[in-house]
Amino acid sequence: MTVTSPFDHVLKVLARDYAESFLRLSLPGVDLQLVGTVENVELTIPEGRVDFVHRVLWGEQEYIFHLEFQTYHQLDVPERLFVYSALLTRQLGLPVLTVVIYLTRREAPIPTAYEVKVGDVLVNHFGYQVVKLWEYADEIASGRWPELAPLLVTLTSEPDEEVLARERELILQEADPSRRADLLACAVTLGARYFDKDFLWRLFREEVEMFRETEFLQELFADKIEERARQALQDGLRQGLAHGRKEGLRTSIEQILSHRFDGRLTLWQLRELLEPLPVSKLEALIGSALNAPDLDTFIAEVDNMRRSIQQSVPA
Questions:
Q1: Over pLDDT 70: what percentage of the chain?
Q2: Which domains does the chain have, with CATH numbers?
Q3: 226/187 Cα distance (integer angstroms)
Q4: Which residues sit opposite 113 in a β-bridge?
Q5: In this structure, what are the phi and psi dihedrals at residue 284, rounded to the nearest 5 degrees?
Q6: Nearest-CA neighbor of 63 among 88, 95, 20, 25?
Q7: Helix (H) or strand (E) holding 311
Q8: Which residues are within 8 A (CB) of 77 and not within 5 positions of it... i.e. 6 or more apart?
Q9: Residue 197's pLDDT is what?
Q10: Prior bond to 293 cis, omega within 30?
């Protein structure tokens, strides 16, 4: 496998969770059933391991589905796939279906076989399926393959904010929270190649905070998450101080009135009277509680304050 970061992370997630989608893309009309994944297949070759190997059924016949991703075509791909197929067949004892998914547009023809010729005579031929994923960009954007939405930004010749917003819209359709988090991480991973971090944060902030346990998101947005946490702490402290200040003022007014007017209002009645008033109004009422000639005058002032607050609130 020759995919480099960040595609490696993204494709591992997509090939693990959505192998069936790639199966339908590469072999349309063939009624194959995905029945399992073969984990960590190690081969006795320098590369050592192939990443995306699944078990599929056609009727009662079982096959190995070997999925290979290529960012760009490399000259050794046909020979390497020939070797992979032979070793997988021998090691797992099943016929192998080899499919290569290409991610970057290429105008020149892409080889679909490993061949050995003597002059013009074809001696050996090993063929495999090739999927040019950019040819499916419109289908993915339309919602035909929502699980492949994170790849849209790589399949568009000039990705813009609209493409990324469409990715986000499609990803949020995924019902499984864990998979939704993985797709989000994939979209942000690839988006970081084309857009600055501040824009990605603005677009995906709500989802990043929801799925902040995703390791890549933590790394990319560490400063943003820390800033948000610090802001939340400061807001909480301010709210706590404001609440404490309001509670203290209200208690002081209640004590003054109870002392001056000998409990003519119950504590519950006082609380109900003062509850809607903000700190600034309660501060002004301290003087009124001390100097009002009688309780009715004080209550009238509170009523005026409450009416002014109600009138200032838009309908």
A1: 79
A2: 1-142 (3.40.1350), 248-312 (no CATH)
A3: 22
A4: 127
A5: -70, -30
A6: 95
A7: helix 295-312
A8: 2, 68, 70, 100, 111
A9: 76
A10: no
pTM over 0.70, yes/no: no
Q: How far apart are CA 2 and CA 102, in angstroms?
A: 11
- Return the closest-CA partner of residue 95 out of 51, 128, 68: 128
Q: Tokens 């609209």, residue? A: 162
Question: Dihedral of the CA atoms 279, 283, 289, 291 (nearest 10)?
Answer: -160
Structure tokens at 244: 């404490």
End-to-end CA distance of the chain: 63
Strands (E), the chain: 33-38, 41-42, 49-50, 53-58, 61-70, 96-102, 113-118, 121-127, 129-132
- Residue 37's contacts (CB-CB under 8 Å, 6 or more residues apart) are 16, 19, 53, 54, 55
Per-residue pLDDT reduced to its tens digit, 237-284: 455 455 667 777 778 887 777 777 766 666 667 777 787 788 788 888
Could you give the residue ranges of the DSSP H alpha helices within 95-196? 137-142, 152-155, 161-171, 177-191
Q: Going edge to edge, which strands form the sheet with 33-38?
A: 33-38, 53-58, 61-70, 96-102, 129-132
Helix (H, G, I), strand (E, B) or coil at 126: strand
